[in-house]
């Protein structure tokens, strides 16, 4: 029996490392916008990343290039 090849977007959770997202998924960042009282109000578009076939998204919170993994997780 041949293994079934998945098509389309995929997310691989690596052991003690990043989420590896593949399938040319659009990637953008949103931030929490505030109202006149300085309270959290709604999400606002912040940045769109160049399209890539694959991304490694930081899951440890220690990357210097958030939201992308920079390999720092290896030393922590
Ligand atoms: S998962 Fe690699 S730096 Fe955070």
Describe the structure.
The protein contains no helices and five strands. Helices cover 0% and strands 37% of the residues. It is an all-beta fold and 76 residues long. The chain has one domain (10-75). The strands form two sheets. It has a three-stranded antiparallel beta sheet, with no helix packed on it. Strands 3-4 form a two-stranded antiparallel sheet. β1 (10-13) and β2 form a beta hairpin. The structure holds FE2/S2 (inorganic) cluster (FES). FE2/S2 (inorganic) cluster binds at residues 17-18, 58-60, 62-63, 69-73.
Q: What can be said about this structure in brief?
A:
The protein is mainly beta. The chain has strands at 10-13, 19-22, 28-34, 40-48, 54-57.
* Strand segment tally: 5
**CA radius of gyration:** 16 Å
How many structural domains in the coordinates? 1
Beta fraction of the residues?
35-45%
Distance between the termini: 41 Å
Shape: extended
Mean pLDDT: 92
* Biggest sheet, spatial arrangement of strands: 1-2-5
Unreliable segments of 5+ consecutive residues: none
| Class based on secondary structure composition and strand pairing | mainly beta
**What kind of oligomer do you see?**
single chain
């Amino acid at each position: 029996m041949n293994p079934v090849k998945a098509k389309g977007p995929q997310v691989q959770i690596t052991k003690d490392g990043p989420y590896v997202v593949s399938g040319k998924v659009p990637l953008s960042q949103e931030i929490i916008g505030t109202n006149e009282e300085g309270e959290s109000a709604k999400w606002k578009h912040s940045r769109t990343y160049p399209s890539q076939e694959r991304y490694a998204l930081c899951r440890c919170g220690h990357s210097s290039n958030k939201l992308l993994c920079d390999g720092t997780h290896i030393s922590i």
